[in-house]
Description:
Oligomer: single chain
Low-confidence stretches: none
Number of helices: 25
Radius of gyration: 34 Å
Helix content: 55-70%
Amino acid sequence: MLEEAKILDNVKVTEKNTRFLQNIKPYSELIAAIICGILITFGWLLHRFNIIEWSIASYILAYVIGGFAKAKEGIIDTIEKKELNVEMLMIMAAIGSAIIGYWTEGAMLIFIFAVSGALETYTMNKSHKELSSLMELQPEEALRVNAGNEERVHVSELVVGDLILIKPGERVPSDGKIIKGQTTLDESAITGEAIPVSKFSQEEIFAGTVNLTGSITVEITKPSNETLFQKIIQLVQSAQSEKSPSQLFIERFEGTYVKVILSIVLVMMFLPHFLLEWSWNETFYRAMILLVVASPCALVASIMPATLSAISNGAKHGILFKGGVHLENLSNLKAIAFDKTGTLTKGKPTVTNVLIHEEFSNEEILRVIASIESHSNHPLAQAIVQFAKNELHCELFDPESIEDVPGWGVKAFFNNSEWLVGKAGFVGVEEAEIFANGQAKELASEGKTIVFLKKDNHIIALIALKDVVREETKLAIDQLKEKGIYTIMLTGDSQKTAKAIAAESHVDDYVAECLPEKKVEELKNLKNKFNTVAMVGDGINDAPALATANIGIAMGEGTDVALETADIVLMKNDLPKIAEAIHLSKRMNRIVKQNIVFSISVIMLLISSNFLQFLELPLGVIGHEGSTILVILNSLRLLRSR
């Protein structure tokens, strides 16, 4: 028993130590930099008291502890790519400083380099924060229901068609549709929207959302590795791994630059002694300063921290970029093409007008038409039923008989009367045109679809429906116009409907009756005219146009094909986020330019000062490494909203 207790205690201690190491791992570079700084201070004090051997030993420890991470990174990178890099320059400069007796300066170089490395790591960790928090929201288990029996299974074991029970307070483990019960869901993990959403039978729900109120039985519609939740994670991962054109250029430039600097340093170790009559000590000293100040640390750090910070900021606000290249290109945008249905509009027909003959009450007619339309799966019928349910406080009824007339409408019989619900051609064109003083024609000119209700031989009601423009659409389009961006709507709808929606949404122009291939053709024309063009869409038919545009932007509730084809995803379906994304892109490019100009200016100033023999090694170290830290701190400003 004692031995078992000891073994158990040892296991607990091991687990505790493992957890401790995992917790401090993200801060290891910062801790190493702090220890390096303490050892430098200790070495300097020992030197002041003339304890030289212990002072040098303290500096050597500072070199090893502070420089280990960067030295390891530089050596591995050099071996893998067979190309010298900035890290190797810093190692050589620190060793060179020690050789000529400048232990403190060499150690300071290592210390500040370690601090800048810790800052870069902090930026990386910050950019991964949204991804990590998302992954933590993914449930590992689900309660599967089979023939009345319940079993707890791993999410990976769920297959399409399985039934699962989700209780109040639990997270949804996989995408599915409700087949029993109703509830309220917190979808903020997916959409970023804090207001809970009510969900009823046959409605879709997404993995990662939280069931707040009722117990629901859900049928799985997607495997756990293909859910919208997983797609978001994959989008963020790909964005963090993909580099922008500017970053790729800097990385290519770095290898050549390092070789040139090493060649110049090698020449400077000898040439000034013979040409300018410098002493050997002064010549080597100036060569070491050149090695320090000419290293492009700040230049290399000018882009990636800024890109990662901007991507992180976007993810936090519901804008997912699939890579730095798309974020960088967004600031050059000159024109945007929009799909209509589901993008500028809500994508679902909504009742806008109800006109009823004065001999009948609104409640009576709405109950009749909703009872008939409840037997149809047509989107217009469903919209009418939903509208009636919101207006009425009584139950619907079943007609005595009902007949669907494809392409025209529905015929029903009850109360010894024949009832027709459908188009003007179904109920009588002439009578339809006369009803309500001819208002049907006026409503149709506004892009609305008209449904008539006829009892026996007389039309007694008219309902107008429209795929209404989103509340935020006008604001989004106006914001883009203020930025000087041309806007155009591409839709498969008729000229009449397209004209009405275009006017209502404030777009500059529209093209009606667009099939997918025509949308692609229009995008090519726009690219020839404006160079950089974006396409915003949500459907399968938009995928070719999204791929053709310089930048494809998908609505978060769009089809899988649209999400996969697009370069940017608006998770909240919030169109004003496009202007926000453009603003973020311009901020990022502005900060990158600031970083590049500043870092090159500092390098040129330090090199000039060194050749004129104004610059001492301590100031060279502070100037060079200080500029790197300032560049990274400047990039971190992109983590803020504005």
